[in-house]
Amino acid sequence: MLSKPQVAEGVLKRPEYLKLVNLIDRFNATKESYQQLVILQQIDMYSKAIVDNCESEFFEKPLAPRVGAYTDGIYAWRHQESFKSNKSSNTSNTLSHEPEQSLEEVLQHYGVHRDGSIFLRSIEFAAAYKQLGITAPQLTYEENETNLDKLYTLLSNRYSILKHLLQETQSNDASNLHEELAKVHIQLFDLIEQAPEIKELVAEHLNILALSYAKIEILQNKLEQEFSEYQAAPLQEKRVNNDNVLFTISTNNAKKDQDQKNSNIELVIRLEDRDNLVNEEWLKSNKVARFFVQDYATFMKQFPGEINSYRPVAISQYAKQGNLKQIAKTIPREQSDVLVEKTQDYFSQISEFCSELIKLNIYHPDIKLTNFLLDNGQVLVSDRKAFEKQQKIKLTGLRTSPLYAPPEFLTLLNKSGTGVKSIAQRKTIDLVPFMTYQVGMALKSFLSGGKSPSTLLTVDLLKGCPNPSIAHKNLVTLSDALTRSLIEHRISLEVFHSMLDAKKLNLEPEKFQLELEKVAGKNPFVMTHAIKQLMAESEDIDVNAIETLLVPYDKSLTWIDHDVETTLIELLKTKTLSSVSYKEFAVKLAEFHRLIQLGSVEDNNILSLDRLVKESKALLKNSNAKGSNFAERLLLKAIIKVENDYEPYLDTVAIRSLIDKFNNNNLTTDDWQQTIDFLNKYLLIQDKKSERLTTSFSTLQKASFRFVSDELAAFNTKKASLFERFLAWMDISPLPNRVVTKEDMETDPMLQRSHLLLSGLSSEKINVLLESNPELATSMVSLYDNFQQSNDKLKQLKEVETALAELLKTKTSSSVSNEELTIKLTELQQLIALGSVEDNHILSLDKLLKETKALLKSSNSEAEKLLLKVIKQAEKDYESDLHTVVIRSLVGKFKHKNLTTADWQQTIDFLNQYLLTKEKTSEGLNTSISALRKASFRFVIEELAAFNTEKASLFERFLAWMNISPLPNRVTKEDMETDPILQRSHLLLSGLSSEKINVLLESNPELATSMVSLYENTQQSYDKMGKLKKEPVGGKAKETGNSDSSSQKKESTTSSSPEESVELQGEGSIVIREDTSNNAESTEEYGESSTIIREDVDDSPTINKDVPSENDAPSSSFN
User: Which parts of this chain are annotated as the region Disordered (predicted)?
Assistant: First the structure.
C-alpha cells in the first residue's frame, strides 16, 4: 500500500492535493499490476510536478497561490526512503492493516528510479510493461524517420496521454487511454531492442545514475559521508549563469596512472537559478531535446529559509569543448574556410533548434554564444530558465541580455536600464523576430572571433581576414539580414537555415542577395537600395524624399541600419540636398566611422576622437538647420555614441588636460566647473572602468586637495599675528584656522576658488577629497554639510537669539525661567555649529532636543514658540542621524532583552517608517534598520519556537530532535493575544500591515504566510499597546492550518519591489521589472553596463572597443 503525504490541515481541501490523494486511493484500491502501473506513472509525474512547481499545467483553471507547507509535505513524501508510521498523521483514512510503503519503494518494485532522467524513467516504465507480458502491434513510421525520430514520437505520445489522464481523471475514454499508454510503452521497449544507439544511451544513463547515486544522496542531505571516488571542483569557466560544479567519478580505486585518469567520468552538477521546471517534461519528450545536454539525474534541492526554497539540480553531461564564444576565439581569423565551415555547422544547428522550439510554442529570448555549449561537434543547451510560453509578452519578467537584444526592446527600457519605461509597461513584444535578431547578433559575434556585441553592428566583420571566401562574405550578409533594425525587414530563421545550404552559400554575392530576396519573399536591404536609386537619378536630391524614406526609423536615427547610414554618408559626400551641400558633415561622419572601425583605445586614437567630438559639436552649433535634417541628426547620434562608448577614455583625456592647468595655475571658470563635474562623478566610485582613468583621476583629486589646502593656508597666514607665525615657523603649534564661517569662503578673494570647488560637492565627497587632512575635512564638511550649511543654521539661530533677547526684556510670563531658555538655546547653538554627525554629537543633540522639548511642553510665550521652531528644524535637518543612533540603541536592547514598552513602540514606529522604503537617506541608517529588522525577526522566531515547544508532545519533540519532521505550528490569533510567551511578538506584529509583516519575516516564507493570515486586515491600532485582548475586525481568526485564505496571499505579498536593483556587467542576462522612475522619455542608447533588477552574469566586464577580459568570475560550488 502506497503511503500518503503528511501535510498541514490547511492544505487538505486544496484541489491540487485532493488530485494526488485520489490517485493514491485508486492505486491502493486496485490489485491489478497493469492498472497500478498506469496510476503509478500519473502519481510519479504529478507529484514531481508539484515539487517542480509546475503542477498547474494539469488544471484548466488557475490554482490558488502556492503554500510552502504543501510543497514541503510532498517533497518529504517523495524523498521518504521507507514509510515511518505516524499515528498522528492527518491523512490516514484507511482501516487496512497492509503495511504502507514509500513512493520510492513502490517505484523500485517496478524497477523505476525516482531521480532518474525523464528519458530513463520512461524506458524503465516501458520495461515494467514488458514484464507484464503485454504485446502491441508494430508502430508505422514515415519512410525517412530515424530511430531518434521514432523515439521522440513515442515519448511525446506518452507525455500527451499521461497529461490527458491527469487533466481528466474521470474521463469516459480512460480505458482507451490506458490501452494506448500500454501500446506506446511496448513499442518504446521494442524500439530500444532494435536500435543499438538508443540501447547504448539507456545503458549510459543507467551506469552514470548508479555511479553517482551516493552523490545524489549527499546533495539531498541524506548522507554526510564523503567518497574518495568523487571529486568536485568549480568549473574553470562560468557557464550559463548557474552554479556549476565539475563532478569527476573515479572508475578505479587503485592508484591512478594517466590511462586510468583518462577513463574517469567527467560530469557537471548544475544548480539552476530558477524555482520551477515548467515545460521540462514536455520539452524533453520532444525531438528538440536532442539539443539539450544529457541530464542523468534530476531533482529539486531544498534550501530551508530562502525565498525560493527549492531549486533544480541535475547531474548532467559535461560539454568538454566549452561554449561557442570560447570556440570562436580559437578559430584563426585569417583561415576563412575553417571559419565558414564551423559557422555553417554550428548555426545550422542553432537555427534548427530555434525553429523546432517555436513550433512547440516555446520561445528563447536569451540567445547568445555563451548559452550554447559544444560537445563532439553537437551544439547543446543546458540553461532553459529563460524560456517563455507565449509569443507576444509584456517585458515585465522577461529574462534577456540587452547587448544581444533588438531595438524594439531597447527603446522601451528606461535610461538606466532598471526596467520598462512607464509609457511602455502595457506594450508587448513579439519573441519570434526577437529571437531572429539575437541569432544574428550571435552570428556576428562568432564571425568576429567572439567579440562583445556592443560594437558589432558597426564594425567590419571581414577585417582581419586578408582573403575572405565568397561564403564568408555571404555569412556577413546573412548576419546583416537577421539584424535589421526594422522588424519587417528581418529574414526569418527558416530563411536563414535555408540560406546556410552550402550550394547557396557559395553563390557570388550579387546572386546570393537575389536568391536571399527570392527565398525570403522580400528585400532585407530595401532601404539602402532605395537611397542608391535616388542617388542614381540626380545630383541634387530633395531632402524631403530622404526624410520620407527614413520615417520608419526613430527620429533620432539611433537605430538606423549601418549600411543605410553608410549609404547616406556617401550621398552627403557626393550630392547636394535641396541645393545645400553637407559635405563637411559627411567628412566628420566618415571620420567617426573610421576611428570606431579601428577599435583602438590607445591615446592617439582617443585624442583624435576627443578632437572630432569637439569639432563636430562646433559644426552643429554653427549650423542653420539646428537638427531639422538627417545629416545633423546622424552627426549628433555619432557624438552621443562615442561619448557613451568611450566615456572613461575621453574623461581620461579631459582630466589630464585639467591636471596640466592645475600645475600651471591657469584654470578658467569652465575648467573649474569641469573639475567639479569629474569630482562629483568619480569621487565615490571605486571601479573607474580603466586603469588610465583611475590613475588620472587620483592625480586630479590630489591636485584639487593641494589647491584647497594652499588657499586656506595662505588665508590663515594672512590673518595670523606675528607671534602665531613665529610659533608655526618653530613647529611649536600650527597656525590657527580662522575660516569659521561660509561667509569667509564666499567673500574673501583668497578663498573664492576653493569655495567654488567645495560648494559644488556634497559633504560626503568633500570628506573624501580632503581625507588626507582629517581636521581640515571635518572643518569644511561642517561648513558645506549637505548644502544646508552650518553657517545658514547659525544665522537662523542668531535671529532667534536676538528675538528671544528682546522678548525676555519684556519679562513675558512663563513657567520657564529666562535663564533656562538661554542655556538651552546656547547649547543648541553650539552643537549645531559643530556641524558633526559623529555618534557622540548626535547622541548629545538627541538628548538636548528631548530635554528642551520637555521644558517647552506647556509653553505659550512667543519666545518659547520661537525656540520650539528651531528645535523642529534641527530635528528635520538631522532626522536620519538621530534615527540611526536611536535604532542602534534599540538593537542593543534587543540583544540584552531589556526593551521597555516605550522601546517596543519606537521599534514599531521605525519598522512602519522604513520597512518598505528602499532608499534610506544614509548608509548608517540602512545598516541600522537592517540590524533592527533582523533583531525583530529573531525575537518573533524565538518566541514562536518557545510556544510551539511548550505545546508539543514528547513524541513531536523527539521527531523534531531527530530532524524527521519539524514541530507543528499551533499558534492561533487568540494565542498571540493572550499567551504570556507571545504577547510581545503580538504587540510588534499587530502594529504592522500585512505587507510589512511579510517583509519583516521574509527569511522564513512559511512563517510569513502564517503570520500574515493571522493579522490580515487587522484594523487594530498599534498605539493602543496595553489593550492586547482586543479582537481583530471580523472576529477571532481561525487557526493557520484551517485557513485557505492565508495561503492565497503569499505570492502577492512576497513579490519583489520594482525598484530593487543590482548592477549588470558584460553580457549578463537580466530580468525586467516595472519601472517607477521618471525616465520614461529617455532615448539614450543602452550601454554595456547598466543597473538592472537581477545580476545574471556569464561573462566578465568588457570595456567598449577593447577585447573582452578573459577573467571570468568562478562559479560557486556546493556539496
Answer: 1026-1119
Longest Cα–Cα distance of the chain, Å, equals 115
User: Do 857 and 925 belong to one domain?
Assistant: no
What is the residue whose three cell numbers read 525598484?
1059
Which of 1021, 1053, 1085 delimits the end of a domain? 1053
SS3 of 396-422 = CCCEECHHHCCHHHHCCECCCCCEECH
630, 704: one domain: no
Mean pLDDT of the 976-980 span: 85
Written as nine digits, the cell of 109 is: 518494485
Domain end residue (candidates: 1053, 1076, 1099): 1053
Q: Is 271 helix (H, G, I), strand (E, B) or coil?
A: strand
Residue 293 lies in a domain: no
CA nearest to 728, candidates 739, 719, 717? 717
Distance from the Cα of residue 929 to its chain's centroid: 24
Q: Verify that 998 and 983 share a domain, yes or no.
A: yes
8 Å CB contact between 475 and 357: no
Distance between CA 129 and CA 950 in Å, rounded?
Answer: 52
Q: Are residues 977 and 1043 in the same domain?
A: yes
Cell numbers 526569418 correspond to: 492
| 705 φ/ψ angles, rounded to the nearest 5 degrees | -60, -45
Strand partners, 295: 316
Instruction: Give the mean model confidence (pLDDT) for residues 392-398.
Output: 85
In sequence order, what are the beta bridge partners of 1074? Answer: 420
**pLDDT digits 0-9 by tens, 525-573:** 999 999 999 999 999 999 999 999 999 998 899 999 999 999 999 999 9
Strands 378-380 and 373-375: antiparallel
Task: Identify the residue with better confidence: 1099 or 1089.
Answer: 1099
**CB 414 within 8 Å of CB 1080:** yes
* Grid cell locating 50: 508539484
Q: Is there a domain that residue 391 lies in?
A: no
Q: How many CB atoms lie within 10 A of CB 686?
A: 6
| End-to-end CA gap in the chain | 35
Residues 6 or more apart whose CB falls under 8 angstroms from that of 625 comprise 631, 632
Q: Averaging pLDDT over each range in 60-74, 604-618, 677-691, 1075-1089, which range is the top one?
A: 604-618
CA triple 766-770-775, angle to 5 deg: 105
| Same domain flag for 698 and 561 | no
Q: How many Å apart are CA 363 and CA 372, to the nearest integer?
A: 15
Q: Cα–Cα distance between 804 and 808 in angstroms, integer?
A: 6
H or E element: which one contains 792? helix 790-809
Residue type, 147: N
Q: Quick one: 851 and 988 in the same domain?
A: no
Whether 189 and 54 share a structural domain: yes
Residue 90: inside a domain: yes
Q: State the pLDDT confidence band at 856, using cuts at 50, 70 and 90.
A: low
> Are residue 60 and residue 155 in the same domain, yes or no?
yes
Please check the confidence at residue 1102 and state whether its pLDDT lies above 70: no
Residues of the chain above pLDDT 70, percent: 77
Q: How far is CA 5 from CA 21, 235, 384, 589, in A?
A: 8, 38, 30, 70
Range of the domain at 715: 654-682+684-760
Q: How far are the Cα atoms of 147, 193, 559, 560, 969 from residue 198, in angstroms, in the given order? A: 8, 9, 49, 50, 50
Domain contains 126 = yes
The pTM (predicted TM-score) of the whole model is: 0.70
User: How many domains does the chain divide into?
Assistant: 5
Backbone dihedral region of 874: left (phi > 0), alpha (psi from -120 to 50 degrees) or beta?
A: alpha
Query: What number of other Cβ atoms are within 10 A of residue 637's Cβ?
Result: 20
